[in-house]
Amino acid sequence: MKIVVSNEIESVCPEFVGACVEAQVVNSQFCEELWKEIEAMGEKFREELTTESLKELESIAATRRVYRACGKDPSRYRPASEALIRRMLQGKELYQCDTLVDLVNLASIAFGYSIGGFDADKFVGDTLTLGIGKEGEPYEGIGRGMLNIAGLPVYRDVRGGVGTPTSDNERTKMTLETRHLVVLINGYDGNENRVRQNAEYIQQLLRKYCQSDGGEYFVY
What we know:
Distance between the termini: 11 Å
CATH topology: Phenylalanyl-tRNA Synthetase, Chain B, domain 3
């Protein structure tokens, strides 16, 4: 997979660092051990954070700053990492989907980065470009219907948008049949070391829960 960061993104966030994890996987409907990790993470956050202090985590604060710089209200279109952790802090359970989705959610809340998980066999072409959404650009968010992505950072393949920090696209979503996984980590805080740690954490989770060798990752 090739990833291109557009001048649009570099102009609003010159420090951006991303990572792409690519792996062969086997998905499953539910993994009890994975959910024990998710529940333990929730308990840890409830001891350490509030819904207000959450916004001050640098990985989340940086994403919110980029939303504003692109012209989007981060409180109305919350980055997924923030929305997931907020839900935990409010004492609500995360939605259980399948092992791959749950695993990507855990990796996102553990580091605070908005992370996209995709069935790579559904991409059109071999290149994804990170840009900014346009007015009227069609985009169907997973479980959200048509989403206004104007002013949101968005990855596009040849056909169009596949992922934003708020919601990934129905067209390229992971399913139980997904075997070729691509995960994109968005480090708008510019912390390359932490982005790498997040990528390696995802590889560890894939080895534990998805019958995978963890694949490979690269930073962009």
